[in-house]
Amino acid sequence: MDLFDTHAHYDDSRFDPDRDRVLSSLPRHGVSLALCPGCSLPSSRAAAELSERYDFLYAAVGIHPHDAGGMTPEDIPALAELAARGKVRAIGEIGLDYHYDFSPRDSQLFCFKTQMDLARTVDLPVIIHDREAHQDTLRIVRDFPGARGVFHCYSGSLETAKALVDLGWYLSFTGVVTYKNARRVLEVAAWLPADRLLLETDAPYLTPEPHRGRRNDSTYLHFTCETLAALRGVSAEELAGQTLNNGKLLFQITDQR
Prior knowledge:
alpha/beta, 8-stranded parallel sheet, 9 helices, 39% helix, globular
C-alpha cells in the first residue's frame, strides 16, 4: 500500500527518544507521505524545520484552539513567513474546541477567524480541529467562501458532513474508526464520497485497535485504512491509493509518487 498520513504530530515530545528512527522507517511500512501540523508558533517552526529533513514529510503551520488565548499580533506575520517555506502546505491545526475550553471561546473564535483570513491571503488550505463546536465551526467556514481544507479527525454528524462536502471540504478519519463506540463516525465514513476522504493517525494520539493505549505513529495507519476499506466494500489498496491522491491534490504535492 501507498499511504498518506495527513496528520501526525512528529514534533511532539513523545517522539524525542526515537523521532528519526520512526520517521526513517515510514517508507518501509508503506507510508509514502506524511504531514506534520503545528499547534503553536514554536510547534509550527518545529514542524516546518522537521519537514525539510525528510523528502516525504510536509508541514502545516497554525495555532490550535488550546493555544488561542496566548496568540499575539506578532504571531500572524510570523506564521505567514513560515507558510512561505516550500514544504509548508497548509494552515493548521486551527479551529474550535468546546470540550476542553483551554482558551476562552471568544479568543478561540478570534484566533480561528484570523487564521482563516491568513489562509485566504497566502492561498493555502486549512486543517480544522472541531470538537463539540460543530455549529460555530460550520458558520465560520461558510463566512469564508472559497476556502478549502480538511476537517481532521471528523466527529460531527452526517448532516454536517453533507453540508461540508457540498462546500468542497474533505473529511479525515483516525484510528477511532476501529473503536467499538465509533458508530456515528462509521456512518459518515461509509457515506462519504471517495474523492473527499483522507486518512490520518493524529499521532501520537488515537492509536487504532489492536494497539490502543500505545503511542501512535504512521506505521499503524494501515489499520484505519483496512477498517474503512472493509466498511466501504473496496480493497485496502484501492482506498490507500484514492486517499493518497486526494491528499496530494488538497496539499498540492506534485513532486512525490
